[in-house]
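Purpose: get a first structural picture of the assembly so the mutagenesis plan has something to point at.
Setup: two entries, given in the order below. No constraints added.
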Amino acid sequence: MTPSRTAFAAILTKDLRSELRTLQSLPAMALFSVTTFVIFRFGLDRTSLSGSLAAGVLWATLLFAAVLGINRLFVAEREEGGFDAIRLAPVDRSVLFAAKVAALLVYLAALELVAVPIFALFFLQDAAGLGPLVAVLLLADLGLAATGTLISSMAVNSRARDLLVPLVLLPLAVPLMIAATGATERLLALGGPSYHRFGTWLMVLGLYDLIFGLVGYAVFDFLLED
Amino acid sequence: MYGKGLKTLSIATVAMLAVSLSLVFFYAPLDGDQGFIQKIFYIHVPLAIVALVGFIVGGVFAIAHLRTDDRKWDAYSYVCIHISVIFGVAVLITGAIWAKASWGHWWVWDEPTLVSFLIVFLLYATYYPFRYAVEDRDRQARYASVFAVTAGAFVPLNFMAVRMAQSLVHPRTFATAEGGMPGEMMLTFLCSLVAMGLLWTTLVKFELTAKSASGQVKRLRRALDAPPSGGSSRIAPEVS
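Result (structure tokens, whole complex):
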């Protein structure tokens, strides 16, 4: 393995292992999403959802739950000196970006593994749309992980850490949410999933992932300079 | 040194604004459909175009800052985004007025350009809290540049996504079936565009001059107070 690949694997396993041992983010994210579903149940006064309403509830909840995890993504790095360590290590700094994106991707997938079935259990009449929904979830997670990692790495070094992530990330995530809800809305429509414009929305999600993956990879070097 | 040519530029801007406004009110024909209210188009659309171009220009200066590590480019980037945000407020207000007059509502969610602009504006509005939450000067400049680059990449993507989310298509001013607007309108519009572009440039130059002057004053005052040390002769305007 090349040094950067070793470093990537090392950082990723370190992150996942410390999350498994401390359980700092994931349980909170899952709990938050379930509570938010309950709030939507009463806020909308509906016991079952479909179409655009279902897509909106699902994605708003997932996005806000993701913000919780994104907020904490670099806290350990800052407090325990992980930033200094990566600066001293003879590896490309972008490795840290890639590893953190991968870690966040795992968090988001784990969150959705809990939240989406519960959402279906609470609100959906039939679960036929959940299969193709996996593709939408994966592509949206990738984009969210790329922008989230970028914003989180900057916010953690600022005074207003917990404030900046939601403030900057939410407008940045709007195109992602447009595409994700656009695709999900039809999948969860009453009377079975429809695939109208499904491919187009997936392409928009892929484009978002590509652009912000590249931007993050290109600029991340400058964030670690000191 | 930033003040050089400022007078000429200001005079040119005022002259161009006067020319374009007289064209708007005395030369351009009344719109058959909307009548007099359509005149706001000559203010609203150039403002929006200039603001968006300004955001992109801010992103380009930010790339220059990241590549050269020269604080001058960060100041340029900051001022470009700052003036564009101010233009953005004007765009949203004129857009709301136009929407009220021609569609009867202050805000219309079916108009993709208006909605996209709002989202872009909201993102750039977070530039200030983002920037000033970082204390260290160099790091602040670097983070702000990263933000400007990221947001610059966001602008076209956002316009595409919002446009696609719309099922209803509004008339696109430049691409109607009849082949766009008549020549007089086009000429007036182009003049307004140039005038707004000049206005933006002048304001950017004014702010850069003011920032550079206040930075110099600060440095001189510090030099008076402090014992002589390796006084830096940097002329980059300070952002504060």
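Chain B has one domain: 6-28+39-168+181-225.
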